[in-house]
Amino acid sequence: MSAPIRVFVNATPLEVPPGTDVRGAIHAHDPEMEQAVTAGRALVTDARGIEVSLDAPLAPGSILRVIVRARRGQPDTDADA
Fold first, then answer.
1. Contacts of 13 (CB under 8 A, 6+ apart)
2. Given Cys at both, which of 15, 71, 72, 73 links 4, Cβ 3.0 to 4.6 Å?
3. Is position 15 within any domain?
4. Is 52 in contact with 64 (CB distance < 8 Å)?
5. Tens digit of pLDDT for each residue in 12-69?
6. What is the CATH number of the domain that holds 58?
7. Is 54 within a domain?
8. Enclosing domain of residue 46
9. pTM of the prediction?
């Protein structure tokens, strides 16, 4: 069995099995947060702020940030239109 790898979700260190994807790490950190991401109420970025896919494999030291979307419901219409 391979040794776990350390990744970070919202600055919290986690030990996960090698081969864990983004979704698995978020689920290990907080299952409700994973549901919010799956439902589109939040998004996941890497340390640079670039959105990452939930099925992307993680490398040791990966840093993930889960960002809750501020908008809820229908988007506002353009006032200048």
1. 6, 7
2. 15
3. yes
4. yes
5. 999 999 999 999 999 999 999 999 999 999 999 999 999 999 999 999 999 999 999 8
6. 3.10.20.30
7. yes
8. 5-68
9. 0.81
